[in-house]
């Protein structure tokens, strides 16, 4: 389905059964749940799919070891169940990953070993692999860069690892496979109210400036950290739901974690956990938990957050990365439900919450990627009941997502699953976008033709993960991406120039220190900016 087809369908006169506003994990999960039940489903996304928090995770499909330590057994059990389902339903996107808790104190191994055995038990028949104690030699084999002094072994346990924005695009394709319609770069400008009831939304096509209306039996607000903005469209005086928190990650070269396992630090100086996770032949290290007063589409890491992550990593790794080794730094905002004044955001529940307003607006927020399917199922149950839609059974527990395959594919093709062969047949399938990036020119063409990519940012930040793997290299690749996209979209050189300028300004915010800025379309380098 082309963008024009989607817009024509979205702006048609016939009302939808379900209108979902928001194209992140919660919105896409709800939309897929709705469409697979046979409801007429429309999803509207103001920017791009997974533009916000849903592309900025720690890349884990997990039960949440620290939630178990907090005593939230039901949340952990549910997440472990969903972890197992997601691995079955999207084997091209989810893989087993070993995590090592290194023991530098005599009590560490037995203490964490007992807790992780409970973690295994809660997963039941969907457990990945059993956790186990390993000795010092095995620990160093799994992570050769672990600090050796005082190391007595550790506990090895298993969780899932995935690519978040690629899962979002896979859900988009799955939605379309089942008759749903989705439009990105289509911000909602207002809610339609009749007799005090929310019966639809007005929205704008950002590319043409034209406004449209979409009427629906049920309207779902799944806009993540922006849910309060949409709620205020119905009631300007509504009390805010969220206390957002910022999580920061840094990305470094694989040489800092060259073995088979990820590193899990169970208790940092601020009481959180910290992960160092192999990902696309790089290492993602994070995360922080910093309360923020306001939300934005491009949150920025604070210098002290980066220092905290690198300082914690230096307690365990030798050599340890420094600021000069950071290829990219990114920040995401967690939509934590507001609690009593003074509550620490680390203590707030990560479970999802569904609220229905007096006018019938259904707001879904909280949760995490691992439980996206359960969040969607719970929300559509409520929506169908509220709207009086015919009751239909959920099918998503056993639903294979678009492209699902157990076939062995190498990167970058693995994330495409059964679509990989079609992409490899496109021009540029063997031509890299940049020597320091794993992505091919054919992937840009595919993203435009089949995945609704409309901007250079869409391609380099979310269809590929170039901005996270190497922000500077992605900025260098921007002119070539713009040229390929212009050919696919029928755009001129002025469009290419504007796209490259906008992308390089964005990419500069992912670089440490500062970054090489190239605002001009020629790609001429300027002096590196002062360290952040």
Helix-strand layout with pairing:
Blueprint (H helix, E strand, L loop, with lengths): L2 H8 L5 E6 L3 H12 L4 E4 L15 E2 L3 H5 L3 H17 L4 E9 L5 H16 L8 E3 L1 H7 L11 E9 L1 H14 L3 E3 L4 E7 L2 E8 L6 E11 L5 H8 L10 E9 L8 E4 L8 E6 L2 E5 L3 E2 L11 H12 L13 E7 L17 E5 L5 E5 L5 H16 L32 H5 L16 H10 L5 H8 L2 H4 L1 H19 L3 H16 L24
Parallel strand pairs: 1-2, 1-10, 2-7, 4-12, 10-18
Antiparallel strand pairs: 3-6, 4-6, 5-6, 8-9, 9-10, 11-14, 11-15, 11-16, 12-13, 13-14, 17-18
Description:
The chain is of the alpha+beta class. It has three domains: 3-53 and 166-240 and 348-398, 3-Layer(bba) Sandwich (FAD/NAD(P)-binding domain); 93-159 and 243-346, D-Amino Acid Oxidase, subunit A, domain 2 (D-Amino Acid Oxidase, Chain A, domain 2); 413-508, Helicase, Ruva Protein, domain 3. It is 33% helix and 20% strand. The protein contains 16 helices and 18 strands. The strands form two sheets. Strands 3, 4, 5, 6, 11, 12, 13, 14, 15 and 16 form a ten-stranded mixed β-sheet that branches. Helix 15 (471-489) runs antiparallel to helix 16 (493-508).
Global morphology: globular
Structural class of the helices, strands and pairings? Answer: alpha+beta
The CATH class name of the largest domain reads: Alpha Beta
- Helical content class: 25-40%
Number of strands: 18
The CATH superfamily label of the largest domain reads FAD/NAD(P)-binding domain
Main beta sheet: 10 strands, mixed
Separation of the first and last Cα atoms: 43 Å
Radius of gyration: 23 Å
Question: How many individual domains?
Answer: 3
CATH T-level fold name of the largest domain: FAD/NAD(P)-binding domain
Tally the helices: what do you get? 16
């Amino acid at each position: 389905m082309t963008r024009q087809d989607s817009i024509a369908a979205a702006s048609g006169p016939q009302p939808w059964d379900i209108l979902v506003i928001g194209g992140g994990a919660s919105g896409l999960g709800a939309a897929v749940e709705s469409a697979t039940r046979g409801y007429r489903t429309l999803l509207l996304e103001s920017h791009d799919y997974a533009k916000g928090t849903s592309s900025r995770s720690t890349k884990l499909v997990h039960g949440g070891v620290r939630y178990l330590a907090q005593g939230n057994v039901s949340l952990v059990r549910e997440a472990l169940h969903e972890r197992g389902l997601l691995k079955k339903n999207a084997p091209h996107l989810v893989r087993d990953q070993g995590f090592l808790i290194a023991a530098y104190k005599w009590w560490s191994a037995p203490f964490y070993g007992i807790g992780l055995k409970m973690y295994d038990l809660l997963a039941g028949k969907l457990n990945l692999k059993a956790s186990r104690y390993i000795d010092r030699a095995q620990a160093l084999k799994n992570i050769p860069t672990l600090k050796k002094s005082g190391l007595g072994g550790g506990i090895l346990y298993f969780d899932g690892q995935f690519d978040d924005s690629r899962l979002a695009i896979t859900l988009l394709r799955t939605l379309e496979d089942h008759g749903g319609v989705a439009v990105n770069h289509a911000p909602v400008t207002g809610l339609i109210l009749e007799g005090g009831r929310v019966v639809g939304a007005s929205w704008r096509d950002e590319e043409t400036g034209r406004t449209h209306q979409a009427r629906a039996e049920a309207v779902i607000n799944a806009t993540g950290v922006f849910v309060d903005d949409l709620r205020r469209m119905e009631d300007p005086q509504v009390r805010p739901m969220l206390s957002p928190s910022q999580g920061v990650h840094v990305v470094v070269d694989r040489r800092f974690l060259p073995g088979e396992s990820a590193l899990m630090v169970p208790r940092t100086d601020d009481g959180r956990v910290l992960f160092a996770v192999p990902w696309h032949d790089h290492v993602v290290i994070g995360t922080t938990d910093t309360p923020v007063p306001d939300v934005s589409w491009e949150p920025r890491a604070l210098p002290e957050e980066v220092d905290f992550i690198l300082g914690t990593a230096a307690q365990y790794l030798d050599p340890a990365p420094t600021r000069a080794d950071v290829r990219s730094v990114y920040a995401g905002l967690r939509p934590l439900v507001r609690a009593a004044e003074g509550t620490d955001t680390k203590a707030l529940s990560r479970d999802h919450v569904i609220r229905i307003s007096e006018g019938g607006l259904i707001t879904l927020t909280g949760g995490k990627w691992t439980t996206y399917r359960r969040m969607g199922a719970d929300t559509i149950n409520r929506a169908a009941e509220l709207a009086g839609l015919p009751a239909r059974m959920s099918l998503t527990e056993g639903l294979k997502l678009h492209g699902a395959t157990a076939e062995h594919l190498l990167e970058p093709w693995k994330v495409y699953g059964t679509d990989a062969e079609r992409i490899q047949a496109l021009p540029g399938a063997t031509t890299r976008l940049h020597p320091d990036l794993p992505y091919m020119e054919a992937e840009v063409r595919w993203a435009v033709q089949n995945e609704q990519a409309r901007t250079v940012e869409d391609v380099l930040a979310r269809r590929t993960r170039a901005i996270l793997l190497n922000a500077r290299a992605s900025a260098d690749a921007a002119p070539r991406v713009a040229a390929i996209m212009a050919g696919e979209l029928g755009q001129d050189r002025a469009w290419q120039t504007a796209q490259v300028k906008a992308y390089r300004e964005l990419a500069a915010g992912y670089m440490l220190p500062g970054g090489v800025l190239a605002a001009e379309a020629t790609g001429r380098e300027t002096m590196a900016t002062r360290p952040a």
